[in-house]
Each structure stands twice: as structure tokens, then as C-alpha cells.
Amino acid sequence: MKGKLRFRPFSFSPFKLTETRKVVERRYKHAEEEIILKLSKRRLPDLLDEIRALPMDPEVVKEFGRSLSKVKIRMLIYEYPYHQEEKETQQKIVLILMAGYRREVGRKAWDIFQSHADDPYLPKLLQFIFRKEDASFLGLEPHARQQLTDAFTNKGNPIDRLVTLLLGSNQQAADVLSSWKIKSDTVLQSRLIKEMLVLGLADDRILKREGIVAVKSYLENMILEDYKTVLKVYLTHRDYRQFEKEILVQGLQKLGDPRHNRRPWQFLADEEMQKVIQWLMQNDLATFFGRIKDNERFNYWKKYLDFMRDVKVFDEPPVLCMDFGSFVVVEFGHSGAAYFYHREGFYNVVLKKIADLQRGYRSLRSKEYLFKYRDEYRRDGYRLYIHRLPHAGYWTGKFDEHMQHYLRGNFKYQR
Predict the structure, then answer these.
(1) Residue 329: which of 319, 317, 318, 338 has the closest Cα?
(2) Higher-confidence position of 37 and 124
(3) Residue 7 has pLDDT above 90, yes or no
(4) pLDDT reported for residue 336
(5) CB-based contact 220:250 (threshold 8 Å)
(6) Residue 384 burial by CB count (10 A; 0-12/13-18/19+): exposed, middle or buried?
(7) Which helix H or strand E contains 118, and what residues bound it?
(8) Containing H/E element for 226?
(9) Which end of the chain has fewer CB atoms within 10 angstroms, the N or the C?
């Protein structure tokens, strides 16, 4: 039809206005709170005197709470907690906050709980809040809101229930905590992560879900005593062959090498400490043979780790010394032959002279000979040389025969 009017769609987005609003909100975000805190300095002492004077009658206290102005209720929650007050006074304050409740009290209480997770009265206030508030409280997603409601309204410790939820979740802990509006680097976050790891590192499920990088980060941010508690759980429930290198290296950085100083590692039982030592020896073997790209010798000596007491590695020249309790095996970077020594002779003759004599030899080859005392069965009053075995032909079988005899103390065996 001629002359018919056409209406085109039109939309308007006030970007400039939105940006201006955000700037104003950021500028004055804490202004109201600062005003309340200034008022608190003048008026809160008198208000606390009134609260102390109230009888411990819930109905009387609640009636007092309902009579308080919005400003006074806000003063009470902004200055929370009141650990310096008597228990009865703290209980009254919680009742007053419930009686004069406003949503701002709920938001502030959840924020305070994250810094004062051990406060004995906040859980009761939060139980009231989660029952009273509607679905929009804290801007939580429905699933997260239900989880927090259940944690605070059912019987028992709410933190324990939150830990249980963390353990059972298919999401990473960081995502779950974020959905609960729990801030990073708070007391509550630290406690939930610590308890999750204490209960969850007995097997690999939490480790796989979180990823080694995240777990290492959690451990790095713990106070030392909490770190030791979690590390002990990890070490206790695994064979040393199952240890993650990143976790053990972090332990060495925090606590030092237990082979040099065991004091920082005294939180471990002897069996657990031995597993750490075995891992360190295995790591030394892997590092030494990895540098010279000799996987065959690494795999051979790895199977004797349970019999080793100590491993020493020298870089210049590349020399590996494996202590088996009554004898020591010396391997060299250049394959050649392995040397077998009596333990007392090795420590009192070979190692004793290495430090002094190394300075006088410039040639790498000459330094290597400092570890070779062929056919010197006794020296300086100590039993020293036992045997040398080359890595030629089917050498692993020949080594096994000699190792079986030497581990039983039969050092006369040679073939």
C-alpha cells in the first residue's frame, strides 16, 4: 500500500553514561563505610555499654536490636569481630545483628568470615542470613547458593562441610571457591585448601584434578607448619617411585637436603624419611646418567636403589659414587669400568684425598684417576680395592653376579 509508514528498529546503548557511572562507583565505593567507621569512634563505645548492660534474655536483646537505627546496626557489623568483649556480650551482638538485619549486614558478615573463619559466633549469624536471604544474595549461581546454604544451615561445622564439597567436586578448587565468592589469600581460603589437601592427597584424584602446578602453588603459599602437615600426607601414602619431582624439589627448596641437615625434616617418621632419601638418590642417578645420555646404566643401578645408603655425584670430572653400606661402587662419565671399594677405605682414602689433590690436576682425565686405585687392596691401614668390572658384552649379568655376592659380604668373589 502506497504511503505506508515503515518503522526501522532502533537500539541505544549509553556507553558514556555507563562508563561515568563506573568511575563514580569506584571513587565512592568505600566512602559510606569510611563515614560509618568515623562515627563508630565516637558512638560505638556508648552503644557497647548499652549492650553490656542488657540482660541475657534473647527477647529483650532482639527487641533492643529492632529499635536500633540503620546506622547503629551498620556500626556493629563494620567493627566486627569483638574478641575483646565477654562471650555473653558477643552473643548479644549477634542477636542484635539478626534482629536489626539488613542485606548489608549479610554481605559484610560473609566478607568478615573469610578473615575470621575461627570466630565462634559468625556461623550462627550466617546460618540466619542464608535462611533469610533470597536467591539474589551475593550474586551467587543457584548451585553455589544451595551449597553454602546447606553448609551453614545443617548441623555440624560449616567449614568441614565446605571441605567435603571441595573434595567431591569435579571442578578445580579455585573455580569452586570463586563460585562461593571466597577471596584469594584469605584465612578461609587457606584453611579450606589445606584441609582439602590433608584429606585428599592420600591418593591421586585431587592431584590429577587440580594439576601439579596448582598443588605446588597451594603448598608454596602455606605457612611452614601447614606445609609440613600436607607434605607428610603426600609422602606417607606413596612409594618413592611415585613421587612427583616438582613436589620434592619444592621440599628441598623449603627445607633443604635432609642428607645434610635432618632437623627441618623431623616431622617425618623414619620410614617416610627413608623414602625421601631413596627418591633423592634416584634423582641423583637420573641427573648423572641423564647428562651423559646413558639410560642403560641408569636403569641398571636404579634396581639396586633399595640397597643404597647414599649417592655422591662429582661434576668435574663426572663421577658417581654409590654407597651400599659395606662397599662403594664408582661409575664414571666415560663408560669404561666400574670400581668396587670397601666402604671404610673409600671414605678414608679416596674421598679424603680428593679435595686436596683435585686442585693440583688440570686435566679432566687426570682428575678421574683420583678415583681409581686398581689392585690397591690395602692403603693407609684400610681395606680398599675389591674389583673392577668393564661395561662390555653382556655386562649386566656379570654385574648382577658380583652384586649378589658383595651384598652378602663375599668380597673375594671375582669372575
Answers:
(1) 338
(2) 124
(3) no
(4) 83
(5) yes
(6) buried
(7) none
(8) helix 224-236
(9) N
Torsion sign over Cα 17, 23, 29, 30: negative
CB 55 within 8 A of CB 90: no
Q: What SS3 class is residue 384?
A: coil
Specify the 3-state DSSP secondary structure of 223.
coil
**Tens of pLDDT, residues 251-260:** 999 999 999 9
First-to-final CA distance of the chain: 113
Q: What are phi and psi of 72, to 5 degrees?
A: -70, -40
The pLDDT of residue 14 is above 90: no
The confidence band for 24, taking pLDDT boundaries of 50, 70 and 90, is: low
Cα atoms in the Cβ-side hemisphere of radius 13 Å centred on 36: 17
pTM summary value: 0.83
State what percent of residues in the chain have pLDDT above 70: 88
Distances (CA, A) of 140 to 29, 122, 150, 181: 21, 20, 14, 8
pLDDT digits (tens, 9 = 90+) for 345-371: 999 999 988 877 766 666 555 678 889
Q: Is 156 left (phi over 0), alpha (psi -120 to 50) or beta?
A: left
Residue 244 Cα distances to 10, 19, 204, 234, 279, angstroms: 60, 48, 11, 10, 10
Q: Which residue has the cell 578461609?
A: 188
Contact between 311 and 284 under an 8 Å Cβ cutoff? The reply is yes
What would the grid cell of residue 415 be? 669372575
- 288 alpha carbon, distance to own chain's centre: 29
CA distances (Å), 2 to each of 9, 16, 110, in order? 21, 41, 65
Q: What number of helices (H) and strands (E) belong to the chain?
A: 21, 7
Q: Residue 235 pLDDT more than 50?
A: yes
**Set of cell numbers at residue 80:** 566486627
- As a whole number of angstroms, the distance between CA 106 and CA 371 comes to 73
Long-range CB contacts (within 8 A, 24+) of 142-146: 143/179, 144/179, 144/180, 144/181
Contact 298, 282 (CB under 8 A): no
